[in-house]
């Protein structure tokens, strides 16, 4: 069974854009389901005043469905207020849908302490039903416990990248991994090997985790994250096709040959 958080469904009230479980019993059932299925909420730390981009994946069958980003700080199992719909900006929140990749991205800017809380990626399902969601907890800190030097990395096909993930002393002894959002495949620190690409994950034990990926292909493009303990820091990897320079070389031999024929023609006149 898939984790309940990854495929959580919430009741939608279209008229008010407020999601409210109508009965205590329904709320109780939802909490029990979350507990027995080992649901996971992704926690992302962001520096005060900083920005974050959150990737929200969905099944390709929902490509044409409406997507949105919603929030509720208290009683997270009870209600959710929509902050922005796909391809729109509302205040410091922008949502962009990428149906060709079956994901939408949420950008939140100028984050403050009051922005701490639970957020949901959601795909709208028509009719009287539940919307498909995935949960994140955004944690605003003056010095984030886990962060990355660059959250957007680009490289030519066949090239190499190095991603540096930073963590505070509190997380020195926590379990560390490098994972891909789409398939949730993870590699642990100390692992060196080859999947589709070659990779090496090392930890200096003093606040820096380094991930090196070599021989990258276009299909390796996507969203990854550094996982340190219960915290994550997202990274977007873009692998582009190699550029080939086109050099036009004049045919010097052809020019000489044509000139010789022209001279011979003149002599025959």
The N- to C-terminal Cα distance equals 93 Å
Task: Report helical residue fraction.
Answer: 10-25%
- Give the overall pLDDT as a whole number: 78
**Named CATH topology of the largest domain:** Immunoglobulin-like
What does this structure look like?
The protein has 269 residues and is mainly beta. The chain folds into 2 domains: 134 residues, Sandwich (Immunoglobulin-like), CATH 2.60.40; 95 residues, Immunoglobulin-like (Sandwich). The chain is built from 2 helices and 20 strands. Strand 14 and strand 15 form a beta hairpin. The radius of gyration is 26 Å and the shape is globular. It starts with 7 loop residues before the first strand and ends with a helix.
Q: What keyword list fits this structure?
A:
five-stranded antiparallel sheet; mainly beta; 2 helices; 2 domains; 269 residues; Immunoglobulin-like; 20 strands; disordered N terminus
In summary, what is this structure?
This protein is mainly beta and 269 residues long. The protein has helices at residues 24-36, 252-268, and strands at residues 8-11, 42-47, 52-57, 67-72, 81-85, 88-90, 93-98, 103-108, 117-123, 130-141, 146-148, 152-156, 161-167, 176-180, 186-188, 192-194, 198-203, 208-214, 222-228, 231-240. Strands 1, 2, 4, 5, 9, 10, 12, 14, 15, 19 and 20 form an eleven-stranded mixed β-sheet that branches.
Layout of secondary structure:
Blueprint: E1 8-11, H1 24-36, E2 42-47, E3 52-57, E4 67-72, E5 81-85, E6 88-90, E7 93-98, E8 103-108, E9 117-123, E10 130-141, E11 146-148, E12 152-156, E13 161-167, E14 176-180, E15 186-188, E16 192-194, E17 198-203, E18 208-214, E19 222-228, E20 231-240, H2 252-268
Parallel strand pairs: 2-10, 2-20, 12-20
Antiparallel strand pairs: 1-10, 3-8, 4-5, 4-9, 6-7, 7-8, 9-10, 11-13, 13-18, 14-15, 14-19, 16-17, 17-18, 19-20
């Amino acid at each position: 069974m898939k984790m309940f958080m990854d495929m959580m469904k919430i009741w939608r009230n279209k008229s008010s854009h407020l999601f409210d479980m109508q009965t205590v019993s329904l709320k109780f059932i939802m909490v029990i389901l979350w507990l027995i299925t080992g649901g996971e909420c992704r926690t992302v730390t962001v520096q005060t005043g900083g920005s974050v981009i959150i990737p929200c994946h969905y099944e390709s069958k929902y490509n044409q469905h409406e997507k949105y980003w919603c929030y509720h700080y208290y009683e997270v199992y009870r209600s959710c207020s929509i902050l922005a719909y796909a391809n729109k900006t509302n205040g410091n929140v922008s949502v962009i849908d990428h149906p060709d990749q079956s994901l939408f991205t949420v950008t939140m800017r100028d984050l403050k302490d009051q922005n701490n809380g639970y957020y949901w990626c959601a795909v709208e399902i028509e009719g009287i039903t539940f919307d498909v969601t995935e949960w994140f907890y955004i944690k605003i800190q003056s010095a984030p416990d886990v962060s990355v030097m660059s959250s957007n990395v680009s490289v030519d096909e066949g090239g190499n990248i190095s991603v540096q993930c930073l963590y505070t002393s509190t997380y020195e002894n926590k379990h560390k991994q490098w994972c891909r959002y789409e398939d949730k495949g993870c590699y642990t620190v100390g692992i060196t090997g080859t999947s589709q690409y070659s990779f090496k994950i090392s930890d200096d034990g003093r606040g820096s985790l380094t991930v090196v990926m070599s021989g990258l292909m276009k299909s390796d493009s996507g969203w990854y994250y550094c996982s340190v303990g219960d915290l994550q820091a997202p990274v977007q990897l873009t692998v582009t096709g190699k550029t080939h320079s086109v050099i036009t070389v004049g045919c010097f031999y052809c020019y000489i040959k044509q000139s010789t024929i022209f001279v011979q023609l003149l002599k025959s006149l």
